[in-house]
């Protein structure tokens, strides 16, 4: 493993994270997660376990402190001179969505590790502890619980959630935790993070949209994180019938009901945008039963997923009410039955204005062009902000979006983002 490093003491340039170590981390994560097309590291699965073990290995080689909490979140710390001061924190996650990319989450976790390794190698000791948290289970596609890792870290998880089955194998969160060495029996009693003992939390992440690409800027300063309201398992029940022998007035067509409901909500979205409000609406799943649906039958069942996001909590509630209204309307109009299923949601989070200004000032000193922007996607940083911790996010330019195998963050952009993060953490920790 390469240890080449350009460093200075505590001058403005500071210890420079090692690009070769960065390459090694991403290459190893690729080997761990590659599924033949993209990256698949399920939450509390073998791939996530191996990724955590990789970070543990590198941290130990650099003499960093390591601990795990009851939920197996990983904490890597470079001790400060005064260990009684509130700690500076950074971090992200290492699980992926099915067939995702190699940078979502991993870029932020790798950035924090690179910085702590660089500081340790250069002999730099901050005034206060600086800690990287590598959270578990951020991607709620596996367990339908938002920000599972960061919520467990703060003791915010209801014990009932431990019985939630994972989407791919049906095995409960409790059992998956036990299999990887976590201690779910300590939920509610184990030591957890105290927000008053955290100076700040700063998370680096790839941008998951096209804003930085369009602006031709490598780094974004995040102003806030959208919350969400979701129905992950909605079902529209109609009645299968012969496509040629059933006139429209006799039909109970699940697909037409779903199409009408989706278009009505889409019209609501356009109305919201026209009023200058900000949100997104996505139907990520819309499918008939492949075992029974066919070209010669009126479809009797439609599975549907609804995902609404906004930084405005009141708007999320308004749109949720519209979802329910539209479900009732299509029931009456199309003679179907709509089961929306459980609603899951996350709360919007505002980023700390002081840290945003610090990041902008440092970027200007470093000659980095940045833009301010919101995050449409959810992140563990939202949990920290919700607990009253001064929180900020830095986005790194990334082509082709996220949650797909084609994520394309360029290493020079990443290193620019890591450099800004290093300066920001060093300023806060000093």
TrEMBL record:
**Which organism is this entry from?**
Gluconobacter albidus
> Which keywords appear in this protein's UniProt record, sorted alphabetically?
Hydrolase
A Pfam family this chain is assigned to: Peptidase_M20
Q: Which family does it belong to?
A: Belongs to the peptidase M20 family.
SUPFAM superfamilies, alphabetized: Bacterial exopeptidase dimerisation domain, Zn-dependent exopeptidases
Name of the protein: Zn-dependent hydrolase
Which InterPro entries does its entry note?
Amidase_Cbmase, Bact_exopeptidase_dim_dom, Peptidase_M20
Q: Which domain of life is it from?
A: Bacteria
This entry's Gene Ontology molecular function terms read:
hydrolase activity
